[in-house]
Amino acid sequence: MYWTVIGVWHEDRPVVVGVVPGRYEVYGGDEEVFPDGLWYLHISAADIREAEMLAKAEIIANGL
After folding, report:
1. Distance (Å, whole) CA 11 – CA 49
2. Are strands 38-44 and 13-21 parallel, antiparallel or unpaired?
3. For the chain, how far is it from start to end, CA to CA, in angstroms?
4. pLDDT category of residue 10 using cuts at 50, 70 and 90
């Protein structure tokens, strides 16, 4: 199953703030509150927990 994982950068770490089943584009976000950046990824995973782990690993590995 595909998941859209949404997160922010906080103190040089990717932090997941939400996971939605399916593939969705994500727009907006408050860059004043999170000046380090916002991010989202589409991940294929068995469940939410796996989606969160895979997304954080990919963000870190690819410096997204």
Report:
1. 22
2. unpaired
3. 22
4. confident
51, with CB counted inside 10 A (0-12, 13-18, 19+), is: buried
pTM as predicted: 0.87
Of 60, 48, 64, which Cα lies nearest the Cα of 5?
Answer: 48
The total domain count for the chain is 1
Residue 7: give the domain boundaries: 2-62
**pLDDT the model gives residue 50:** 98
CA 54 centroid distance within chain: 9
CA distances from 3 to 21, 32, 34, 55 (A): 5, 26, 23, 10
